[in-house]
Amino acid sequence: MPEPANLQPSTFNPQLARASGLLLHPTSLPGRYGIGELGPAAGMFIDFLAAAGQRLWQMLPLGPTAEGDSPYTSPSAFAGNPLLVSVDRLRDDGLLGAADLADTPDFPAVAVAYEAVRPFKEGLLRRAYARFRPDAAFGVFAARHAAWLDDYALFAALRARHDGAHWWDWGPPLARRDADALGRARRELADELAYQRFVQYRFFGDYAALRRAARARDVRLIGDLPIFVARDSADVWAHSDLFQLDAGYAPTAVAGVPPDYFSATGQLWGNPLYRWDAMARDGYAWWTARLRMALSLYDLVRLDHFRGFEAYWAVPAGEETAANGRWVAGPRDAFFAAVRDALGGLPFLAEDLGLITPEVHALRERVGLPGMKVLQFAFSDPDSPYLPHNYTPDCVVYTGTHDNDTTRGWWAAAGEEERALARRYLGRDGADIAWDLIRLAFGSVAALAIVPLQDVLDLGGEARMNAPGVPTGNWTWRYERGALTAPLAARLRDLASVYGRAPARR
Predict the structure, then answer these.
(1) Less packed terminus of the chain by CB within 10 Å, N or C?
(2) Is there a contact between 34 and 112 (Cβ–Cβ < 8 Å)?
(3) Which of 69, 232, 351, 405 is catalytic?
């Protein structure tokens, strides 16, 4: 298996290239194993992007998921999701045989049944590990990523030993990372630690193959980096001094957003907040390591909740909603100056949606990051900044995001005033609303235009990826095998060509 962590960051600059692409999380790819994977179907999606004249594939965070299955709540800010490991590549590498796959369940084709998929994939990975013989490439991988991999492997092993209990409930010696307790755990759990490293080795190997295939087809990958991390994570356990926690490791305040378009009581995310003062003392070393890791995977990284770097919404611990929080100053310019010095640039996109103040816009402009525009937000107000005639080129336009309904679903629920403004603006009757907005996005001056695949397929609300504030039923959508047709690719390529977003034909 090729060494998986050997790719250099791209020099692709969104401000120097007019391009378009699709938003699709890999879990939404088709396949027989119950969930999309970083295997053959991912390669076929890259082929479709290239045939369609699309140069960008944006995906959601790729970390392991926990309760609720959200990619934005992960037990690690560095690790990859074991559910995305390619079963077909495990078979091709001789780590699984036909007998191992003979009892593959008849999974749903258009939805991820996480409760069934998780034990199935875990069983296959453990069978593959039993046949795996570590080689030189594995040793190089484990050594190169030891700074995060050792803590994550031990965290995952201890979590399993404690039947999924939170790390702060493992007992004081382990919670406070007593050296003797950790050493004893490493000896006792040596085989489980090796298994966890193996799973990460396979994930990053699969991802490296995907990125090579993307570069070969002139497709650039856009990642997504949540600003906050989960309390029950290897990161908070290993670096508790960098978070706002009390002596018992409980958050003193948690993250969220105030009431907005999505929720009348705001969104109570519950993540522990950073001690930005402590992070500043070592030049934001944890953050620069996290961003360096992301840029080894992606050509561009979307910084989720960018406004939190200017000011973040702090909700006192114990509140039932986010309504009673307050704004607290973030790290602002000092953070981005440190990151620029450490990484040599800022190849990021700023998610600047929601309650955005002039100060947030000014920070984004000072550090030179493109912001986001969402067309589904454009038609509620004739003076909306999301209407394309108000754009400047330093932005990325979306028909909708993973948090929106599909465009077809949005249109079905829109009020008549909103529909009327859309019809006037588009000069269309709305009968083909998803493609009307795709055309509007591609024709705008925005440097980049990104469209969720659900809109390209003209799907309704049943294909929505996430409904913010709704705790269950999210992150399950998958497209059906055969949905990506040649006529569909031709239609996308024509729009990309007309509006100057398609690559030159070779």
Answers:
(1) C
(2) yes
(3) 351
Distance, CA of 125 to CA of 419 (rounded, Å): 50
DSSP of 371-395: EEEEGGGGGG-TT-TTSGGG--SSE
Identify whether 88 is a catalytic site residue: no
Q: Mean pLDDT throughout 85-109?
A: 97
The separation between CA 414 and the C-alpha centre of its own chain, rounded to angstroms, equals 28
67 three-class SS: coil
SS3 category, 19: strand
> What does DSSP say about strands 253-257 and 220-225: parallel, antiparallel, or unpaired?
unpaired
Catalytic residue among 206, 224, 403, 436: 403
pTM above 0.85, yes or no: yes
The residue behind tokens 């401000």 is 15
Query: Has 403 been annotated as catalytic?
Result: yes
The order of strands in the sheet holding 253-257 is: 267-272, 253-257, 311-316, 326-329
- Check 224, 304, 405, 455 and give the catalytic one: 304
- Cα angle 239-243-244, degrees, rounded to a multiple of 5: 150
Residue 418 a catalytic site member: no
Give me the sign of the Cα torsion angle 396, 401, 403, 404: positive
Q: 30-80, pLDDT tens digit by residue? A: 999 999 999 999 999 999 999 999 999 999 999 999 988 999 999 999 999
Query: Which ranges of 353-466 would DSSP assign to H, the alpha helix?
Result: 358-367, 407-413, 416-426, 433-443, 453-456
